[in-house]
Amino acid sequence: MVRTDTHLQWVGSDQRHAHSVKACAALEGSLPPHGSGRYDQRSCTAPRGDFDETGSIPRPRPPNDRHAEKTVMSLNDRLYENYTSQHAGLEDSASQARVLTRDLLPHIPGPDSRCLDLGCGQGGLSAFLRQRGFRNSFGVDISDEQVAHARRLGRNYVSHGAAADYLQSDTEPRDVVTAFDFLEHLDRDDVLPTLESVRGGLAEGGVMVVRVPNAAGPLFGRYQYGDFTHYSLFSARSLAQLANAAGFSDSRCTEVRPMVHGMKSAGRRAVWSAFSAVTKLALAAESGQFRGHIVTSNLMGYLRA
Question: In what order do the strands lie in the sheet with 9-11?
């Protein structure tokens, strides 16, 4: 007697292939009924190459094989394709301006500075700088939808493409390179080469300004795991390690504290300050280090050429 399901075919009562039954059915999300027999692998959706020579045990794929690479790239392509409409939303220019005024403007040498924003999204950072007289501000982003929205806003200084390609093709020295919420989107193996490319393209005295989720912060997961395209984790110490390896002469990290711009935000800041003090006290008790703890969910990094 033969039982035929949508994806599975069970033939007879022979139990010799029980392992392949369980392995392939696990891939399909179902298990055979009690007492079922041999599994017909022709109806399994898993490729034949996923099993060992006996056809019984799934063979694990190497982590960097071509199939895995294709799967990751396809995932990224799909998520970035509709990144604005399905995830990021439209930029909040007012909130962005407050943050950039505090965390970025003091580190730009002058109005003639050449600035590049990596992973610029809809181009809001470059637009902010241009509105304040920094006319040599440009951005690059890999998301078609993000760049298309930037173009609809008249931001023709935003380019579409991979940051690595842009850094290699544009060889004119830059004074400032920004990477707000960008480095965490890179695979671990790509972070250091990217930093090296930035360092190689900075003018003397230039600076790279980055913002990343702070893996040493107790609440960082809200940012790090709130986006499925995040791959790399950073702390102040690991960012300094990468900066040294990439050839930067100096690096400094700071907290990204809640901004005060009204009564409600002042209350939030007060609650955060109390929580921060308790957290830093606990870290000091554990580590014996009383200074330098960064506990905000994000951190800023300033890497000097």
Answer: 2-4, 9-11, 38-39
